Q: What sequence folds into this?
């Protein structure tokens, strides 16, 4: 099967070059996608630019209705979307069905509701009145990764569209399918043609062409920190608006007074959801020394019970990694840990999943102890099912270890002492902190990181502001 670009309609890439799309659970080629180049991006931008004047002239409420219609269509096809996501990523179908796709639907509904209740400013002076307008930017570029394909693309698409922009999107070359299905849905329900285009291909080619295009006025990027640095360099030289959601190396800080059972399962979930391939994953587990041994033993038991297997089997908790190359990268970190005297508490091996899955990118969930807190596996983003554990003696030390990384995305604090929870949370150098929970998301709150984890915030009004230009108009009252 060939998945084409969506540039007004389904089209082949200009050069007729294709990339294999692989199901990472089996190693089978499931489709081919365009290896698009600048000429394909140029065509998409040209069409998006042409559609901009019609789309921006719709009222905000009409655009909100389109978002609701998109959500309804995805909901009608939820099973089909979930299966496509599971096949592209190797993640459990149950996860795609209960998290990825429902969250994509929620994103469209949320931003439809947000603008219906939105307000803009008005500032009175003795002699004049100021009012503030939000105007669409124009054509915006959305570049997204492979770990949560539709979830993250819809998180950008919904606010960008509702603010009146038109879009050229490039999903990861490893997870192309649901973006294409989204393009089809938007085309069916939007009443205005050409507002959303999908150009498939490699980041350095199709992605870079979007970032470089002078008519693309804003770039919203989620992906690795190294790529983000390149995107930032190009986009800033063109004075484009830029939002960067990058990597993380997040700590789960466990105090002796935590609710023990809930914390064990919460911390395990934070480390291994989606095979540890979430930028928010708590892949550094810091445990107060007085409960360290007991907690680690309970954690080993919990992690060892996570069933790794056929993504389509309902009892599967963890699927395959995104690719064999990515597994190699993750295993390199496990080997570095072994070489540095790390003790593999569980996992560290390739599980045998059975017939048909021999060529898949399988890796058991892995816990590693006895590493230095500054060792490579403890400070670099592994982005796989690998977590390191470290003991700490007091709050000061916990905070120091947690802040001792180049990233600053999120963290979690597990304690029943409310004063300590506030005190530790506020000292963490991260954009987000959870207390006694993880990945509890309200779509209104600011999402994003500090340090090498990115620039800007997404969510609620932060997204609406990013995808619009603010204009103040001051009228003298005469
Ligand atoms: O990300 P990339 P990859 C981290 C994680 C992972 C690493 C690499 O550590 O191991 O990043 O993953 C496009 N100009 N995260 O390789 O390369 C690319 O095609 C424009 C963190 O997938 O950053 C894809 O669409 N675009 C993370 C998107 O950028 C370019 C989620 C992300 O790809 C480009 C995923 C270029 N020069 C990985 N090069 C998170 N924070 O959620 C690549 N792309």
A:
């Amino acid at each position: 099967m060939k998945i084409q670009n969506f540039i007004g309609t389904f089209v082949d890439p200009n050069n007729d070059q294709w990339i294999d799309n692989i199901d990472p659970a089996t190693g089978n080629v499931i489709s081919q996608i365009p290896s698009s180049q600048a000429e394909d991006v140029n065509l998409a931008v040209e069409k998006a630019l042409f559609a901009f004047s019609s789309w921006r002239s719709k009222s905000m409420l009409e655009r909100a209705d389109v978002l609701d219609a998109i959500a309804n269509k995805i909901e009608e096809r939820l099973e089909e979307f979930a299966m496509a996501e599971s096949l592209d990523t190797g993640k459990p179908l149950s996860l795609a069905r209960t998290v990825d796709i429902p969250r994509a639907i929620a994103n469209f509904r949320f931003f439809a509701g947000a603008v219906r209740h939105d307000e803009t400013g008005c500032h009175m002076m003795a002699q004049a009145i100021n009012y503030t307008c939000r105007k669409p930017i124009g054509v915006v570029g959305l570049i997204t990764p492979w770990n949560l394909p539709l979830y993250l693309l819809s998180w950008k698409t919904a606010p960008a569209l509702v603010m009146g922009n038109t879009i050229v999107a490039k999903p990861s070359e490893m997870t192309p399918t649901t973006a294409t299905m989204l393009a089809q849905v938007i085309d069916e329900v939007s009443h205005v043609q050409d507002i959303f285009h999908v150009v498939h291909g490699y980041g350095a080619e199709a992605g870079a062409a979007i970032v470089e295009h002078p008519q693309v006025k804003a770039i919203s990027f989620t992906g690795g920190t190294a790529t983000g640095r390149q995107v930032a360099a190009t986009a800033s030289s063109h004075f484009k608006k830029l939002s960067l959601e990058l990597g993380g190396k997040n700590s789960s800080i466990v105090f002796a007074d935590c609710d023990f059972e809930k914390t064990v399962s919460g911390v395990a979930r934070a480390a291994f959801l989606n095979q540890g391939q979430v930028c928010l994953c708590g892949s550094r587990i810091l445990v107060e020394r007085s409960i360290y041994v007991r907690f680690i033993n309970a954690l080993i038991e919990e992690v060892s019970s996570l069933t790794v297997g056929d993504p389509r089997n309902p009892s599967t908790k963890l699927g395959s990694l995104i690719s064999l190359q990515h597994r190699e990268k993750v295993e390199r970190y496990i080997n570095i840990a072994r070489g540095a005297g790390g003790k593999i508490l569980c996992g560290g091996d390739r599980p045998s999943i059975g017939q048909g899955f021999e060529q898949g990118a399988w890796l058991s969930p892995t816990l590693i102890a006895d590493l230095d807190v500054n060792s490579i596996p403890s400070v670099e983003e592994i982005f796989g099912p690998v977590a390191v554990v470290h003991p700490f003696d007091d709050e000061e030390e916990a905070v120091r270890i947690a802040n001792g990384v180049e990233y600053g995305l999120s963290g979690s604090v597990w304690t029943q002492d409310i004063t300590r929870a506030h005190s530790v949370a506020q000292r963490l150098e991260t954009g987000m902190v959870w207390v006694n929970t993880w990945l509890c998301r309200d779509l209104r709150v600011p999402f994003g990181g500090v340090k090498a984890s990115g620039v800007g915030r997404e969510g609620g009004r932060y997204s609406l502001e990013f995808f619009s230009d603010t204009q103040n108009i001051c009228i003298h009252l005469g």
Q: What stands out?
A: The first strand starts at residue 5 and ends at 6. The two ends are 67 Å apart (CA to CA). Residues 143-147, 170, 172-173, 203-204, 207-208, 211, 222-224, 227, 230-231, 245-247, 279, 381, 383 surround TXE (CB under 6 Å).
